[in-house]
Amino acid sequence: MANWETIIVEREERVGLIMLNRPKALNALNSQVMNEVTAAAAEFDNDPGIGAIVLTGSEKAFAAGADIKEMADLSFADVFSSDFFAKWGEFAAVRTPTIAAVSGYALGGGCELAMMCDILIAADTAKFGQPEIKLGVLPGMGGSQRLTRAIGKAKAMDLILTGRNMDAEEAERAGLVSRIVPAADLLTEAKAVATTISQMSLSAARMAKEAVDRAFETTLTEGLLYERRLFHSAFATEDQTEGMRAFTEKRPPNFTHR
Fold first, then answer.
1. Residue ranges of domains in the chain, CATH in brackets
2. Is 109 a catalytic residue?
3. Is 175 a catalytic residue?
4. Which residues, by range, are in coiled-coil regions (predicted)?
5. Is 112 a known active-site residue?
6. What is the pTM of this model?
């Protein structure tokens, strides 16, 4: 692993853990954070010994937003020529299942980063929002797209146009959050979920993730065909043979992720 300055990276068996670590800035997302998070996630994604990735922040803030100080003096030419924020797409494209463990503030870019993950587990202290409009701009890391797909147009318009926050309970009711846990149990719960996923066949987990994501990109007919073809493809893996054999023999499967 590299020497990270804005994140802490750990590994526990088949689970990779990335912790945002800019406490004085409430984990505001600057370019260095973006580069380090995407690099660490890529390392885990390329490691066959990792079956799930947990992304988290601090108790007070998952990430309070993008770093406004970094952006304040930029011009259109600056952000357009660099395709500002585009590199976050590399994190969203990670094939290994990802889990966001959110405590405290997940605002602006922080909310958008959490939404890039496959599962979002929230502490009962979590606050979500897209307050960019208060700065004279709009979401730029996927907020208008992922939030709308997660909670629907009406609620997304409400949050994005007013800039208000919603608590964990509202986020769960709206469909943004997978589950809510006490703040003290957040990381334990997220690691437990990640461990469960990591013990599944990695190829099957990646196929399942692709199939669910495809539901947002295509028609129902095309999505069903895509799912069916991935299901057929699973029969080319050693894990399918082992999984079904273990079931018939009434024993736990021993997946080799091949």
1. 7-199 (3.90.226.10), 202-249 (1.10.12.10)
2. yes
3. no
4. none
5. yes
6. 0.94
